[in-house]
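Deliverable D5.2: sample structural annotation.
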Amino acid sequence: MSSLSLTVRDSSTMLRRNLLHARRYPSLTLNLLLTPIVLLLLFVYVFGDVMSAGIGGGGADRSEYIAYLVPGILLMTIGGTLVGTAVSVSNDMTEGIIARFRTMAIHRGSVLIGHVIGSVLQAIISVVLVGAVGVAIGFRSTDATALEWLAAFGLLALFALALTWIAVGMGMVSPSAEAASNNALPLVFLPLISSAFVPVDAMPGWFQPIAEYQPFTPAIETLRGLLLGTEIGNNGWITIVWCLGLAVLGYFWCKSLFNRDPK
C-alpha cells in the first residue's frame, strides 16, 4: 500500500475509535452542548427585548435580537465543544494508549488526525443542533442564497478545524483531564468578550480592542453577513487569516509534541 493509503486507512480507524468513545460517554458532549443552548434561551427570553431596544435604539423587537444573537452562539458552540477535545486527548496521553500506539505499525499522524476529524464532526453536529433550536425560537435567514449558506457552512467547518488543532495541543501538554479542561477554557470565554451579544461599538472604549482583535469577532461578523446580509467588510479575509494561522500553528505544535520521545 502507498503511504497515502496507509495514512487514510489508519486515520479512518482512529476516527472510528474516537467516535465510539463519544458515543459511549456522551455526558461530556451533552453538558458542553447545553451551555450555548441555555445562553441562547436566556438572552432571547430574559434579556431579548431590552438588548434589542438598546442595540437598535428604538422599540423592543425580540426577533431582531434573535437574528443578531444566533450567529455568535453558533461559533460559541464550536468553542465549547473543544473542551471535550482537549480532555479526550489528555486522557489518551496520560493513560498509556499513545505509548502503545507508538510501538505499533501505524501511521504516526493518524492518531492526531483521527482526533481532529472526530472533533470537527462533533462540533458541526453540535452547531446543527443549536441552529435548530435557534430556528425553533424564531431565527430566519430568508435572504441568504444557496452559495451564502454553503460559504457559512464552510466558515464554520474551517473555524472548527483551526481551533480543534489548538485544543489538541492543549490536551497534549496537560498532565491531567482537569488541567486540559482548564487550559481549554479561553476557547469558551473568548466569545463572551466578542461581538456575539452586543456590537463592539457599544462597549467601553478601552475594552473595544480586546473584543475586536481576536478570532471570534471577525468570524461572527462574517457569519452574520452571510446569513443576514449585513456588511462584512474586511472581516471575511481577516477570519480566513485567523483560521489558517491557527490551523498551521496548531498542526506544527501538535506534531512537535507528538514526536517527542516519551519521558
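Annotation notes: The chain has twelve helices and no strands. The chain has a mean pLDDT of 83.
The annotation will be released with the project's public dataset once the embargo ends.
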